[in-house]
Amino acid sequence: MKHLIDTLGIKAPPRTRIQYNSDHGDFRAFPHSGTRTMSVEGLPFTLQAEALLSFSRSGGDRNMHRSLENITVSGNTITLDNIREFDPGENITLSIIGPDKSWQ
Questions:
Q1: Which of 9, 23, 59, 71 is most buried (CB neighbours < 10 A)?
Q2: Handedness of CA 42, 35, 32, 68 (dihedral sign)
C-alpha cells in the first residue's frame, strides 16, 4: 500500500488527535458506586491512561489530568486512586484525547 501511495503521489492523511467527550455522546462513561473506578464504552480506539484529559462528577469536583496521579487503565476500566469513592447514582463527564476516527 505504501508503495502504491508513493507511486501515485497520494499523501497519507495526518495522524490527527481530537477530544472525545462523554457529554457529547462520543462514548459512554459510568462510575462504579463505592469504588474509584469507571467504565468506558464505545471508543473507536484502545484507551490508554495518558489519553485521559479531564473528568467532572455530579458532586462538583473537577480534576484536570495534570493533577491526577496513579491513573490505571485496564481494558475499558479506569481507576483513579487519588479521588474519593463514587457515590450511588453519581454522574460523571469524561474527556479523552484520541485519534480522529475519520482517519482510522
A1: 71
A2: negative
CA distances from 73 to 9, 13, 48, 76, 77 (A): 40, 29, 6, 7, 6
* Segment-wise mean pLDDT, segments of 10 residues, the chain, 104 residues: 46 69 92 94 87 77 56 90 86 86 56
CATH no. for 15-103: 2.60.40
Nine-digit cell at 101? 476516527
pLDDT for the residue numbered 24? 92
CA distance 33 to 90: 8
- The pTM is what? 0.73
3-state DSSP assignment of residue 99: strand
Domain map of the chain by residue range? 15-103
